Amino acid sequence: MRVDLHTHSTASDGTDTPAELVQKAAAAGLDVVALTDHDSTRGHAEARAALPEGLTLVTGAELSCRLDGVGLHMLAYLFDPAEPELLARRELVRDDRVPRAKGMIAKLRELGVPVTWEQVARIAGRGSVGRPHLAEALVELGVVDTVSDAFSPQWLGDGGRAYVDKFELDPFEAIRLVKAAGGVTVFAHPAAVKRGRTVPEESLAALAAAGLDGLEADHMDHEPATRARLHGLAAELGLLATGSSDYHGSRKTCSLGDFTTDPEVYGEITRRATGAFPVPGTGGTVNS
């Protein structure tokens, strides 16, 4: 059983539509895939409608959070998307994305980069605009070679020359809200140092005490030694350890199923969730 619990579609900053994503997940030999767009559940209906037979969809979102000045992402699974308090907070985060992107565009132009809002909006399409769309604009303009290269102190990395803060949730609040909506929380790529500053490991104990369910240990941005350390830390704290691709289509080099979650851990996630349930595929059709 192959389980990938972290993917993105055009509903946020991926390049595959939700329908295309589930079709590709089935073709990649996955049995379970989670759609976890940034602060958004807009892709869930399309993914359900196109879900191939034999593939199970886990609905979720990746919530933008900040702790003591450090950005972090919280994967939320199988919560009730209509729960009003969590919905209102997600909308606050999403609504801040456009002014933030325009602020970063202004900083880039001050640095001599001729990027425009029209270019970034075209790249984002129907998705919630974010730094990956600006990064792709920098690639188009020849400023950097890859999207990953744009996430540096020189450009869009946390605290970088063109970085602009946005509204983000306190992770303790995020855990409370997701739990109240019947969901399960997993700290995404907690030791991805190549992205910038990370939350100190001592803070993980406090998050665990507040109800955090798991750590995403197996991830492309974690070296083998880091993955082993995170598995050990999860065991010490009584947390689940997951693995995921963090697939973004052509916007990243990873492929669906590059890292996967142990089926027993997946089973425990579904047992803990009460807000929504995994959706078994019955042979949907692609609706782009």
Description:
By secondary structure, the protein is of the alpha/beta class. The chain contains eleven helices and eight strands. The radius of gyration is 18 Å and the shape is globular. The mean pLDDT is 94.
Concise overview:
With 288 residues, the chain is an alpha/beta fold. Helices cover 37% and strands 15% of the residues.
> What is the string of helix and strand elements?
EHEHEEHHHHHHEHEHEHE
Shape from CA axes? globular
Largest sheet: 8 strands, mixed
- The overall pLDDT average reads 94
Radius of gyration: 18 Å
**Structural class of the secondary structure composition?**
alpha/beta
β-strand percent reads: 15-25%
Distance between the termini: 28 Å
The total strand number stands at: 8
Supply the number of helical segments. 11
Q: Percent of residues in helical segments?
A: 25-40%
Low-confidence stretches: none
Please write out the topology.
Elements: E1 3-7, H1 18-27, E2 32-35, H2 44-49, E3 56-67, E4 70-77, H3 84-95, H4 97-110, H5 117-124, H6 131-140, H7 147-150, H8 171-180, E5 184-187, H9 201-209, E6 214-218, H10 224-237, E7 240-243, H11 263-272, E8 279-280
Parallel strand pairs: 1-2, 2-3, 5-6, 6-7
Antiparallel strand pairs: 3-4, 3-8, 4-5
